[in-house]
Design brief:
Layout: H1 16-27, H2 35-48, E1 54-57, H3 64-74, E2 82-86, H4 95-100, E3 101-102, E4 114-115, H5 117-120, E5 125-129, H6 136-148, E6 150-151, E7 160-161, E8 165-170, H7 174-179, H8 185-191, E9 194-197, H9 208-223, E10 229-230, H10 232-240, H11 246-260, E11 265-266, H12 283-290, H13 305-319, H14 324-331, H15 335-344
Helix pairs in contact: 2-3, 9-11, 10-12, 12-13, 13-14, 14-15
The protein binds adenosine-5'-triphosphate (ATP) and magnesium ion.
Length: 348
Amino acid sequence: MQLVKGLEGFIEAPHPDKLQNIEEMQKFGIIGYSDSIIQSFLRAKKAAKSNANILIQGDSGTGKELFAIATHYMGIRMDGPLIKLNCAAIPETLLESELFGYEKGAFTGAGRTKIGKFELAHKGTIFLDEIGEMSLALQAKILRVIEDKIISRVGGLESINIDVRIISATNRDLWQEVRKLKFREDLYYRINVIFLHLPALRERREDIPLLIDFFIKRYIEQEGVKITQIDEDVVKLLISFNWPGNVRQLENVIHHAMIMTEDERISIDDIPDNIFTSSSLSGDSMSTLAGYIKKDNVIITDLDLDEMEKTQILKALEKAHWKMSKAAELLGIHRNTLTQKMKKYKLK
Ligand SMILES: Nc1ncnc2c1ncn2[C@@H]1O[C@H](COP(=O)(O)OP(=O)(O)OP(=O)(O)O)[C@@H](O)[C@H]1O
Ligand SMILES: [Mg+2]
């Protein structure tokens, strides 16, 4: 499909060896062609073929849920259920009944039998989201199910066999939680047979233009708006941001811009101001931004912009031992752009 205008210069044709993986990822809505995202996907795919429990770790908005779903549907349990449990969201008093269900009449208000999450997930996968937020009481209960592979509903006498595969996700360093005695070590080893780390967006900036294209198309469809173009300078800026909220934050920024724009083009004025904060800005985005005299609240520096840019390019080139593609990657710009800029600043 054709790219949104303005993005062409930022997206390269992927290496032929990667094509099959990229297409497969797309089927699950996972967009990207960086080595790191493909590596993560291949690990997930391998893990999916087993029954081993998987722990997915990544900063907020890196796609943990997306990967958990993909892993279930690539795996041997794909025909079984996938049941999600948000560990942070269950009040302590409802724990038992959420997890194990209850029999009719088990307590006041139990008008009929309710099947719990573990039983629902039988022969399939249970996705324990935000597992790092789980209370110690819940941890103990889950550990018991993993060990015994048996549950009984609240108020019930029957033991029910449970065959589930556990995929958990967290944005915490769970091992640190173990050390702080906030997470049980025995449970940690049970759920973390295979560890899958998802890279932060700033570690795979080359995927940003692809994601921009993907989200523009998504919201053209969802919002029924017409967007045909994004300014190249905006793309540059978005590539250079640090994205503390990762892919979700990028998605929101694009969505916002598409609603705010007065025409069919996304330009700097459509980008929400609240992302111009110090945690979002990298050195590169500072210099790109300084090129704009936007609204009053935008950081305007009176440094010699060209000099700043030149220094950064030089730094990147030195770091990359003057390998053009590597330096361009470090700068988050296309190789051709780098060549142009080197000419401009007479760098050789
Ligand atoms: N590689 C990707 N390609 C396309 N969309 C993505 C990708 N990664 C994440 N997203 C999108 O970003 C949003 C956040 O993803 P997801 O909910 O999977 O992240 P998460 O890691 O579970 O976040 P949190 O830690 O906040 O729970 C979703 O809309 C998802 O579709
Ligand atoms: Mg999530």
